[in-house]
Design a protein that fits this description.
With 247 residues, the protein is mostly helical. It has helices at residues 2-11, 23-55, 59-71, 74-83, 92-115, 119-127, 132-162, 175-183, 187-215. Helix 1 packs across helix 9 and helix 6 runs antiparallel to helix 7. Helices cover 68% and strands 0% of the residues. The longest helix is centred in the N-terminal third of the chain and has 33 residues, at 23-55.
Length: 247
């Protein structure tokens, strides 16, 4: 309880929020680093996953490789990259480590989302004469949107939480508050830094949930008001009913 009370008092001290070592500055560094890593991860994973899911080939190998990547400790990768020649190039070791950490959930979810799109709908669109890119853009991606956003939310939260390790490689971010607390034997500051990282991760998750619901291309058509799949639309006026078939 003393640590929690001390953390609350630390967060309530205005001096801890100002200056280059203050919370606002560290928060900006943390968001910038996390944003760069997430954008790079999307640029790498999304085109590969969308294309493999569309053609239906090579996906199993890609998912297995991404699963192996998940098993590699991010901290170990960060240490190795920091000790390599890249260690003298600013935040590059941290960026590479976080990108490698964020690619697997994006690759897996996007690929599975495309492959699990309703095949009847996809084949109907293909029968209407849609080209491959049109089919991917107008049918498969909207159907896969929930899984795509799930992968994006998972990657974003993981990157925000793991970017704390940047402080161990001399980088910026909220992790510097934690490492400074350890260096000063200030438990309250350590707890305060951890709380800030946790709150930021929750806020990022909440914002992406709102974005997910706001930009869903099939919002209102996936489920009806009662939670059930909507019934098919009635046939146009003047259309002849399909003749019944006797058994």
């Amino acid at each position: 309880m003393d640590a929690i009370t001390g953390a609350w008092q630390w967060l309530g001290t205005a001096a801890n929020w100002a200056g280059e070592k203050g919370v606002w500055h560290r928060l900006g560094e943390h968001l910038w680093l996390s944003g760069i890593c997430l954008v790079l991860s999307c640029l790498i994973a999304l085109p590969v996953a969308l294309w493999l899911g569309h053609i239906g080939k090579g996906g199993a190998l890609a998912i297995n490789i991404s699963n192996v990547g998940r098993a590699v400790p991010t901290f170990a990768v960060l240490v190795l990259l920091t000790l390599s020649p890249l260690g003298s190039h600013g935040d590059w070791p941290t960026v590479i480590a976080l990108v490698l950490f964020a690619v697997p959930p994006l690759l897996t979810n996007v690929y599975l989302g495309i492959r699990e799109a309703d095949r009847d709908v996809v084949e109907a669109a293909r029968g209407m004469g849609m080209s491959g890119p049109q089919l991917l853009r107008r049918v498969e991606i909207p159907l896969a949107y929930p899984l795509i956003m799930t992968g994006l939310r998972s990657a974003a939260v993981q990157v925000v939480a793991t970017a704390t390790l940047a402080a161990l490689a001399g980088g910026g971010g909220l992790g510097r508050i934690i490492t400074a607390g350890f260096g000063n034997y200030d438990t309250a500051q350590v707890v305060a830094g951890a709380v800030l990282v946790a709150v930021l991760a929750l806020l990022v998750e909440g914002v992406l949930v709102v974005v997910d619901r706001a930009f869903d291309p099939m919002r209102g058509r996936r489920r009806g008001p009662s939670g059930k799949t909507p019934a098919p639309a009635p046939a146009p006026a003047g259309a002849r009913p399909e003749p019944s078939r006797s058994t």
